[in-house]
Specification:
The protein is mostly helical and about 90 residues long. It has one domain. It is about 70% helix and about 0% strand. It is built from six helices and no strands. α2 packs parallel to α4 and α3 packs parallel to α6. The N and C termini lie far apart (about 30 Å).
Length: about 90
């Protein structure tokens, strides 16, 4: 829950949160947190006026995919709706 709040309200913590999730998965053998966060992101609905939220979540997913691709690949089917959504630039 704290990770989701940090991603939603503090954009500069996106990449450190991805690193935290990776450390939990690799060093502590606890990948459930990362999978849970990705499932919550997949269920998240963004409105058209919100530009900060989607950017923060996308930075998290991109960084997580770079440093822990297997974790993201396991949840890619759930994230597909966000990948297919249109990008609008304000």
């Amino acid at each position: 829950m704290t990770i989701m709040q940090n991603l939603q309200y503090t954009e500069h913590l996106s990449e450190p949160m991805a690193e935290l999730v990776t450390i939990l998965a690799t060093q502590f053998d606890y990948s459930q947190t990362g999978e849970e966060v990705l499932r919550e992101i997949a269920d998240k609905q963004f409105n058209a006026q919100d530009t900060k939220g989607p950017r923060s979540f996308s930075k998290f997913v991109v960084k997580l995919a770079e440093i822990s691709p297997r974790l993201v690949l396991k949840q890619i089917a759930l994230l597909q709706k966000h990948l297919d959504s249109e990008v609008s630039n304000p």
